[in-house]
Amino acid sequence: MIKIKTPFFLLLFTVLLVACNSRKTSDHTAVKAETKALKKILFVVTSHSQKGTTGEKTGYYLGEVSHPWDVLHTAGYEIDFVSPKGGKAPVDAFDMNDSINKKFWDNNTYRNKIENTKKPSDVHPEDYVAIHYAGGHGAMWDFAENTEIAEIAKQIYENNGVVSAVCHGPAGLVNIKLSNGSYLVAGKKVNAFTNEEEVKVHLEDIVPFLLEDQLIAHGAIFEKSAPFQTHVVTDQRLVTGQNPQSAHSVGEATLNELQRLTKSDQ
Description:
The protein is α/β, with parallel strands linked by helices. Helices cover 42% and strands 14% of the residues.
């Protein structure tokens, strides 16, 4: 009886061991594939540090980086930073009473990244599933005419990626043209810092152009709420938010778009 049972148990043990190892390999492969599929997101921040000739300092608005970063980084995405000039980006609205600002600023990895932003020439668009334009008044002086970053955004978008922007960040969207020659914003619902909000902060005659007017001139269907109310709109993989109050919701809407695209690819 023992001689008969021993080979049977050895065979059973071998079958179970092979099945277990196969399952582990399969699970490990699935995790690796999912992690790889997340890839990276590129954040664009301004290199400009002054509001026209006023002598007032500006830069990127910290909360418009930190809040979308918190949503997307928590979801597992790696964030890189690029600015028109590269290097250290000037920061505005440095409010450490905002816990998310503090969380971002105290993260050594990301603090180092934003103080050593990539130059546009260092960026490979195929590495990114989304691009996010953070606001801050500085963006009004160096986003719209930057053809290198516009080309990066175009390639990410045409590779079925997501483009997002908040507050003055949509200045970077104004002149993006797709391969068919049309403006990215043409025929899409869009919002941004409004004319009314610019008047309320007394900079309507200081900024080089009014963002709402320029987006409309290039075919955007402009939507807005009352000044400084949260307003986010998503249309055809383009996510835009009206003001700093909308930054967190822009991050959530961008994540929703990325998750939707991931499901559609499966």
